[in-house]
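Q: Given only this backbone (193 positions), what sequence would you predict?
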């Protein structure tokens, strides 16, 4: 799973590609308009010069078209992770030390599984109020094992750190890829002189 920073770096790279392509398209369109005015009496010369300018503009696309498609595919592949609240909760840690984290998880799970439902619900409510994501995940797991089920925890409403930003970056990359496809088509369009 890519981090938020990784997704943002991909979005920045995609934006840079699009900006270069847009600049090339703008320059090509400007050159076409200028050549039409200057060479109106010599259509063959005009078409030849336009073809030359188009060739230069297409050189800007180069291998960046493939790279933009790769970026879009990477982002699309990452969406399943960032869209799944349960998966993201499961990755939250009590402690950076793996051994400590495992011990804390085991202790919480053991306690949460056997405590009365009213106490369990208070812990869930408090964890929600304090955004204690790691504890919330242990509550989800414990509730599945409890003989006396507590209130169901709606994971969709949780504000999981960086989730919204990551999904936004993924959507931006998708939009940039679509724009890139349109820009490439316009740069390659030979129906316009």
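A: Predicted residues:
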């Amino acid at each position: 799973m890519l981090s938020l920073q990784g997704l943002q770096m991909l979005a920045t790279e995609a934006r840079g590609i699009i900006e270069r392509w847009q600049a090339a398209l703008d320059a090509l369109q400007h050159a076409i308009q200028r050549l039409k005015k200057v060479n109106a009496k010599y259509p063959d010369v005009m078409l030849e010069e336009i073809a030359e300018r188009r060739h230069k503009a297409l050189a800007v696309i180069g291998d960046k078209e493939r790279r933009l498609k790769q970026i879009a595919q990477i982002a699309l592949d990452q969406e399943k992770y960032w869209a799944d609240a349960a998966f993201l909760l499961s990755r939250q840690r009590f402690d950076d030390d793996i051994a400590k984290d495992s011990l804390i998880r085991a202790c919480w799970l053991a306690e949460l599984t056997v405590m009365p439902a009213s106490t369990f619900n208070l812990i869930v409510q408090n964890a929600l109020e304090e955004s204690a994501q790691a504890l919330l995940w242990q509550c989800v797991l414990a509730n599945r094992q409890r003989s006396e089920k507590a209130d169901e925890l709606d994971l969709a409403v949780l504000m999981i750190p960086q989730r919204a930003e990551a999904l936004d970056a993924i959507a931006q990359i998708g939009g940039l890829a679509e724009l890139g496809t349109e820009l490439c088509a316009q740069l390659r369009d030979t129906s316009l002189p």
